[in-house]
Design goal:
By secondary structure, the protein is an alpha+beta fold. It contains ten helices and 15 strands. It has two domains: 7-145, Gcn5-related N-acetyltransferase (GNAT) (Aminopeptidase), CATH 3.40.630; 148-293, Endonuclease, Chain A (2-Layer Sandwich), CATH 3.30.870.10. Helix content is 34%, strand content 29%. The strands form two sheets. Strands 8-14-13-12-9-10-11-15 form an eight-stranded mixed sheet, with helices on both faces. Strands 1-2-3-4-5-7-6 form a seven-stranded mixed sheet, sandwiched between helices. The chain is elongated. InterPro entries: Acyl_CoA_acyltransferase (IPR016181), Bact_Acetyltransf (IPR050832), DUF7931 (IPR057691), GNAT_dom (IPR000182). It holds the Pfam family DUF7931.
């Protein structure tokens, strides 16, 4: 049982818990979304790893599976339990199972309304959207053994939201341009949730004053209202000023690294991969040499 959540997530034996799994999936896909009943069950079910979310009384409220094709699917949460962390817990359990199996990556087909949910949880979109069971979908992918390439704006948005959403108490950002990604609803929403968390937290922001004040007004307003959460410094050492790369990282080891900070292209690495330790150390060295940024004080926002 997740503390304070009222539900638990556990592996499911398909042969034993088939009715519970299909009960949730039928309610969501067939009854709610009008997917043909014959498409809800397939030959992969007996071959897949399944997880169930159960309420405090042992009733099934969510389900998902991991297929031999290394794809997460059939993610379903009953309406009364949505937006309460059930989907996040199911997804984490399936990704965890993929790690146990030693897989290097996992993919999924996200329904478009759920794309932001998966983006916040480490999956980057790729390719065009497509129809599946009469519903528009997007392929999304997560690397488990290294960095996943970030090549376009949609992937950059997902990578940025992932790092912020997965942070526990700390974020660090080396901003190398006036980045409008932070004004997008997906990213701005993640920043606001981070700021609203009840425990102590802080985001360290390194930025030139010109780049900082050019951020979207909603972001600057958030920084101004919560100066103890969003602490901003400006590099002054000539060597630090010349650093071209940008990065956004968190306290669990996720990092979106941009070799040329003015460009979106880069890579997303999750969960303390050794390759990102050196960039984190570099950020902290620059942070210690930098001065407090006063630019926010003079903005009339």
């Amino acid at each position: 049982m997740t503390p304070g959540s009222g539900f638990s997530v556990q592996p499911a034996d398909y042969a034993v818990q088939r009715d519970q799994l299909h009960g949730v999936r039928h309610a969501v896909f067939v009854s709610e979304q009008r997917v043909p009943a014959e498409l809800e069950v397939d030959a992969l079910d007996p071959l897949s790893h399944h997880v169930l979310a159960l309420d405090a009384d042992g009733r099934a409220i969510g389900a998902g599976r991991l297929t031999p094709e290394r794809r997460i699917g059939r993610m379903a949460v009953l309406p009364g339990w949505r937006s309460q962390g059930v989907g996040d817990a199911l997804l984490a359990a399936l990704v965890g199972q993929a790690r146990v199996l030693g897989w290097g990556e996992v993919s999924l087909h996200a329904q478009l309304p759920a794309r932001d949910f998966y983006a916040r949880n480490g999956f980057l979109p790729e390719g065009p959207t497509f129809q599946e069971a009469g519903i528009e979908h997007q392929t999304m992918r997560q690397r488990l053994d290294g960095a996943l390439r970030v090549s376009d704006r949609e992937q950059a948005l997902a990578a940025t939201a992932t790092v912020i959403h997965r942070a526990r108490r700390g974020l660090y950002l080396h901003l190398r341009c006036a980045d409008d990604l932070f004004g997008e609803p997906l990213v701005l929403g993640a920043l606001r949730r981070f700021a609203a968390a009840r425990h102590d937290k802080q985001m360290q922001v390194l930025a030139e004053e010109a780049d900082l004040v050019a951020l979207p007004a909603a972001v600057l307003g958030l920084f101004q209202r919560l100066p103890s959460v969003f602490v901003v410094r400006t590099p002054v050492d000539p060597t630090d000023v010349q650093v071209a790369s940008g990065r956004l990282g968190n306290d669990i080891g996720d990092c979106y690294f941009r070799p040329m900070g003015v460009l979106l292209e880069g890579e997303l690495t999750l969960a303390a991969h050794p390759r990102i330790r050196a960039p984190d150390e570099q950020f902290q060295r620059i942070w210690q040499r930098s001065r407090d940024c006063n630019a926010l004080r003079v903005l009339g926002i």
